Every structure is written in structure tokens, then in C-alpha cells.
Amino acid sequence: MKWIFGALLLGSIVYPVYAFFELLSVSTHNHWAEREQLMAVMDTSLDSANLGLTGAELAELDQRDQLASTAYTRAVVEAARLGRGYTQVWNLSLGLSALLCTASLCGLWLCRQSRRLKITRTEDPTSADPH
User: What is the pTM of this model?
Assistant: First the structure.
């Protein structure tokens, strides 16, 4: 039983570290929140080449480019939805990891208390089995 709780404890400690580095690798190239906010900006003086198009830049496109503008807008909205979902799943997984850590620490503590209780009973002469 002790091995199970030890493995849960190890997993609950290692997973958040892995998830943090995984989040860093995803967030460094995916600025979904910034792109969504940038589309609401109507300032044409803002240099947004690295994050995407502003709302003003999309409005300046001519009729022929409106399909591209609509596709870009939909892609940004969808990426923002997926980014929020990914963030929620990441937060829930960290919460689950914290719960597993707590449960495994409690389990290891109970295993230790149970072992102490058994040792105490075997050393106590009054608790000897009469059979």
C-alpha cells in the first residue's frame, strides 16, 4: 500500500513541473489572448506585425479581401476559445495533482500510523491474544 501512495506522491509532484514547461512551450508561440484583444483595437498607429492584425487594419481591407478578413477573424475567435479551454483544463489538472498529493501524503501518514499501532500492540503484554 505504501508503494501506491509513494507513486501517487511522485506523480503529483512531477506532473506540475512537466505541465509548467509544456505550458511555456505552448504560450511562447501562441498569443491567443493578445490576438483577440488586438482585434478590438481601432488604432492604426499600433505596430502589430508580430501578434496579428488590428480591427482597424481589418476594416481597411477592400471588398475582395473581406473573405480573408472574415476567415482571419473567425480563426482568432476560435483560437481564443481553444486557448481558454486549454487553460481551464490545465488549471483543473493542477488542482487534481494537488488533490492527489494531499491524498498520497494522508495515505502515507496513515500507513505509518498503522505500522506504529501494530508495533505498539505486539510490544504490549496486556494485548496478548489468549488463544
Answer: 0.59
